[in-house]
Amino acid sequence: MKRQKMKKLISDLEKDIPGLGGSFINSLMNVKPRHLLDEKLYDFKNI
Questions:
Q1: Which structural domain, as residue segments, surrounds residue 6?
Q2: d(Cα 47, Cα 36) in Å, to the nearest integer?
Q3: The model's pTM
Q4: Helices 20-29 and 2-16: crossing angle, nearest 10°?
């Protein structure tokens, strides 16, 4: 159900912003560990 909603949301947004779906896919492929707020990788409490 949620996948269908996301697919519709992206489709609706692409009407106003062409290429948005591709940008989402590219961003998912470029995730870095520091973006995940993993406390084992970085001490976020003592920033």
A1: 2-46
A2: 15
A3: 0.55
A4: 120
* Placement of tokens 């519709």 in the chain: 8
What's the domain count of the chain? Answer: 1
User: pLDDT band at residue 31, thresholds of 50, 70 and 90?
Assistant: confident
User: Which residue's entry shows tokens 């159900």?
Assistant: 1
CA separation for the pair 35, 47 (Å, rounded)? 15
Q: What is the pLDDT of residues 4-30, one digit of tens each?
A: 998 999 999 999 999 998 998 899 898
Going from the C-alpha of 33 to that of each of 30, 41, 42, 47, the distances in angstroms are 10, 7, 9, 17
